[in-house]
Amino acid sequence: MNPEIPLRRLEPGSLPVDTIALAEALIGCALVRDSPDGRAAGRIVETEAYGIGDPASHAYRGKTKRNASMFLPPHRAYIYKIYGMATCANVTSEAECVGAAILIRALAPILGHDLMRRRRGIDAERDLCRGPGRLCQALAIDASFDGSDLLLGDGLWIAAPAGRASVGRSVRIGIGKAADRVLRFYEVGNPFVSGRKALSTA
Question: What are the chain's domains?
Answer without folding.
Answer: 19-200 (3.10.300.10)
